[in-house]
Structures are given as structure tokens and as C-alpha cells.
Design goal:
The structure is a homodimer. Chain A is an alpha/beta fold and about 290 residues long. Chain A has two domains: about 25-110, Rossmann fold; about 135-270, 3-Layer(aba) Sandwich (Rossmann fold), CATH 3.40.50. Chain A has helices at about 5-20, 40-55, 70-85, 100-110, 120-130, 135-150, 170-175, 195-200, 250-255, 270-290, and strands at about 1-5, 30-35, 60-65, 90, 155-160, 185-190, 205-210, 225-230, 235, 245, 260. In chain A, the strands form three sheets. Chain A has a six-stranded parallel sheet. In chain A, strands 3-2-4 form a three-stranded parallel sheet, with helices on both faces. In chain A, strand 5, helix 7 (about 170-175) and strand 6 form a beta-alpha-beta unit. Chain A is globular, with a radius of gyration of 19 Å. The model of chain A has no long low-confidence stretch (mean pLDDT about 95). At the A-B interface, helix 5, helix 7 and strand 6 of A face helix 5, helix 7 and strand 6 of B. Strand 6 (about 185-190) of chain A pairs antiparallel with strand 6 of chain B, so a sheet runs across the interface.
């Protein structure tokens, strides 16, 4: 079994981006990070993104509207950022407060600055295999992780567990694409799937993104499979100072001995998401400055 | 084995639409049918659409740019139709001449008038389960065919053979949706799939859209499966006056005895596509008149 080291691969990407950014003339690419309210997870995510941007040499602009902001006011703010030539990428940190529609908010971000890849148009472009758009960071990160670990999906059976808009569906569409590294046969399973273990056991590559702690157990995995664990779940653990530990959607102790390669949690897919956000920001900058 | 009669189901939908249109006050919904050049298949498709529109009481406007039209001029024509308040739906008949980019042309059609459902934004909305958009007519027709034949996909395994943008991918996304009638587990196979028969034999519902005459044979089908044949292939046949016969992607003689339900070719999915185009046109009219 080989551990896929997401921290290491992300660090490589970050170093590549840093070199690219250093070579840019004039102003540096800028990402606007919009965080609404004080959700502790959002706070730490935005902090991590800000820190990584700084490390690469990107500018970040942190915008902190009150948790009570109306959708109209948020739209006005986004329109302003969309029109601002010194802002290349815009990220609205999810989850949003309940009174805001995520799909509507993400759709309001200009498709040209949509570094999160959640705009409807960019999702459509993933289906169309149109590379002018932005791919959402987690699925893009998974594809990079596979490519840089020497896993070619061609002719292989990828089983995606979970059909979310942010991971399951886009990663399924990416794995299906005709381009090099992809070209997989793809099955999407979910909470409504009958006889799930029989399906996941067919996976050459299993991507678990169902959001249930240690859901994937040894009996659900074919020996030799590549396992990508997208889950980040908090499980109570009285032995920890915080009172919990982080675990993925895969039961690592029983599954890892069977896998040919596997991502740990934390340190697998997580760091890739931030790295790909930065890569998207540089792409957005190039789109902006080319137009 | 029960034959799924696409002609009959399409006729029911057309009758429903006719009643709806008759009840509309004022001007009738209008579809602009843009046919470029004289491809004989395009000619017959557009004629069929025009005829069905007339039957329902919709207005159609046939526009016949020369086969040499530049992309710029075609864009100008589409912009004019996009802006015309008396045009509700716009269809650009494919295939287009080689010098025109299909994706770019389809993207130029206003998302609000995109009755073909090929605009990138509408494809993204299918992934988002956002019903304000338009679903491409063939995949929408397949879902209607299943629903009106009493096939509930919930908990069933749908195997889609083919990953085209027009059928394979959108029908996979539709079958995955959480809404009633859908909620399937979905596998997408294609020309690059290894061990294809082992996968298609798992299908409770097999949707064949691979564009190869009689490709699906009895050994690829589980007894009792529902078979949807999207293929329309011309096979040389000296006994026919035309010199060819139409056949699907399924070898009907050997597969039909195994199937619980199956669509014939012709008379299965084909007529549904036209019926759903008309349904989309009425939806476009309602969008137009509501705004």
C-alpha cells in the first residue's frame, strides 16, 4: 500500500505557482475572499486560503459582510467585485447563512472570476469538456492527485460514492472526459443505491464523498483498488484535547491494507483543494489580463 | 416483453400541449427553426418539427441561412432572434457545417430561448437540478418515456452506453437527480470501457446511445431489463426501396425476448424528441411572457 501524500503534492503545486507568479510583470493576481458571518470552520478555511495566497505571492482581499446581509446587498457587492479590474478571482466561502441561496449567489459571481468553479456556466463547461472554464477545486484537486500519483484512469472503472454538486457530479464528469488521464468508465452511487458493496467492490478507483465517517469498510473494496477519501468528519474522541478527531469517509485501518494507493485524512484531498484554488486564481488573472 | 410505444406516448404529449396552447390568450408561442445548408437529414428533421408545431397550434419561423454563412453573421442572426419578443424558442438544427463551432453557436442562443437545451448554462442547470432551465429534448424524452411507461428509476441501476453531450451525459445527470422517478445509481460506459458486457448486464435499465448499429446483443443484457434504444443507424438493405433500413443501437431480435420493456427503432425515442421540443417551446413562451 502506498500513501498518497496530499500535503506533498499540494506543496509541489504551490511551489510551481510561486515560480509562475514571481515571473509575472506588474500587479500580482488578486483573490477576493468573501466570508459571511463567523462560522468557525469558514473562518479557518478562509485563513488557510489567505495564508497560501500570501505564500505564493498572490494578493488577497478579505471581505466580511455581516451575517445578516441581504441577498440584494450581497449581489451588489459581488457585482462590484465582478466589475473591479484589480480583482481576478472571487470566492464566497460556504456554507452561507440559511437566508441566502447558494446556487443564486454562486451564479452571481462572474463566470470569468469564478475560481471556486460553482457558477452554473462553469459546471456546464466541465460537462462540455471546454477548458476555458473553471473546475471546482476539490474535483480538480482529485484529478491532479491521481495524475501526479501515476494513476491513469483510462479504461478503468471509477466508482464515485456521493452525488453532490461540489464533488460527486463534477468529478464523475471529469473522469469521463476524453482527455489523457481520464477516459474512465464511471459509476455514481449514493445514499439511495441498493446493494452498494457489490458496486463499490468493482471500483478500480473508489472516490468516497458521501460525508459519513468511516462509511467505506474493507468488505466494500476490491484488493488493489486506489482509494480517494474526500470526507472530513469530526468524530467525538475523549482522548483528544479538542474532544474530537478528524476522519474520512473511509475506515482507514481496515481498508488501507487492501488498497494499492490511498489518501489519508487529513493530508489527502484537503490540501489539494486550496492549491487548486490558487491555480484557478492564476488562470483567472490570465483571463482578465488577456481580455 | 412489452413494447414501449414512443409514437403513442408522443401523441399523448402533443395532445396535452395542443389543449394547453388552445387555452392561451393572445399570440401563440413561436419557435424559430434555423437550418443551415441542405443536409437531407436536417431537412427532414426541420420539416417534422414544423409539422408538429402546426399540429399543436404553435407558430414556427423557418430561417434558411446559406451553408457558407460565417460564424459572425450567424451570431448576428441569433442575437436578433434572442432580442425578438415574438420569438420564444430558437433551434439551430445540427449538424452544422464544419466551419461553425457547434458549442459556440449553441451557447450564443439565449439561455431563455434555448429549447434544444444545448446552451452551456442549461446543461449546468441539469447538473444543479435547477428546473428553471431547459433539458435537451432527447434525454428529456427518455425520462418522459420511462415515467409514462411506469418505470420508476429509484434504487435501480441505470447503465448509459455513450457519453455524448446531447444524450449520454445529460440523461445520466437526469437519472441521478433526487426527484421522484429518478434517484438511480448510474454507470456511464463508452467506447473505451473494458469488459463492457459485464457492466451492461448489471443494468436494470439500459440506455443505448453509442451510435453503432445493433451493438447491444443478448449476452449484454440482464433478463427483465428495460431497454431504451436511442440509436438511429442506417444499415444497407437491398430489399428496401431506399436501399437501407433504420436500426437502433440494440439488436432487437435477440434482445427483445429478454427485456421486460423495450423501445423499437423507429417509433421509440425518436418521436419523443420532437414532442419534448414542443414542450420546451411552451415553457420558453411562459418564461418570456412572465418576464
Amino acid at each position: 500500500m502506498e500513501l498518497i501524500d496530499g500535503n506533498l503534492i499540494a506543496a509541489t503545486i504551490i511551489a510551481e505557482l510561486k515560480a509562475e507568479v514571481a515571473a509575472l510583470p506588474g500587479r500580482k493576481p488578486c483573490i477576493a475572499l468573501v466570508r459571511i458571518g463567523d462560522d468557525p470552520a469558514s473562518l479557518s478555511y478562509v485563513k488557510k486560503k489567505e495564508k497560501t495566497a500570501a505564500e505564493i505571492g498572490l494578493t488577497s482581499r478579505i471581505i466580511l459582510p455581516p451575517v445578516t446581509i441581504s441577498q440584494t446587498d450581497l449581489f451588489a457587492l459581488l457585482d462590484q467585485l465582478n466589475a473591479d479590474p484589480t480583482v481576478d478571482g472571487i470566492l464566497v466561502q460556504s456554507p452561507l447563512p440559511k437566508h441566502l441561496s447558494e446556487v443564486a449567489v454562486f451564479r452571481r459571481v462572474s463566470a470569468l472570476k469564478d475560481v471556486d468553479g460553482f457558477n452554473t456556466l462553469n459546471l456546464g463547461k466541465v460537462a462540455q469538456e471546454d477548458e476555458t472554464g473553471f473546475v471546482a477545486c476539490t474535483p480538480a484537486g482529485i484529478m491532479e492527485l491521481l495524475a501526479r500519483s501515476g494513476v491513469d484512469l483510462k479504461g478503468r472503472h471509477v466508482v464515485v460514492l456521493g452525488r453532490s454538486l461540489i464533488v460527486g457530479k463534477p468529478v464523475a464528469l471529469l473522469a469521463l472526459q476524453k482527455k489523457a488521464g481520464a477516459n474512465a468508465t464511471v459509476t455514481v452511487c449514493h445514499s439511495g443505491t441498493t446493494n452498494l458493496p457489490a458496486l463499490t467492490r468493482q471500483a478500480d478507483v473508489l472516490i468516497a464523498a458521501i460525508g459519513r465517517a468511516e462509511f467505506v469498510t474493507a468488505d466494500m473494496v476490491k484488493p488493489g483498488a486506489v482509494i480517494i477519501d474526500v470526507g472530513i468528519n469530526r468524530v467525538p474522541d475523549p482522548t483528544k484535547k479538542t474532544g474530537y478527531r478528524l476522519t474520512g469517509d473511509v475506515h482507514f485501518p481496515s481498508v488501507s491494507p487492501l488498497a494499492s494507493k490511498i489518501t489519508p485524512v487529513p493530508g489527502g484531498v484537503g490540501p489539494m483543494t486550496v492549491a487548486l484554488l490558487m491555480k484557478n486564481t492564476l488562470k483567472a488573472y490570465r483571463l482578465q489580463t488577456a481580455s
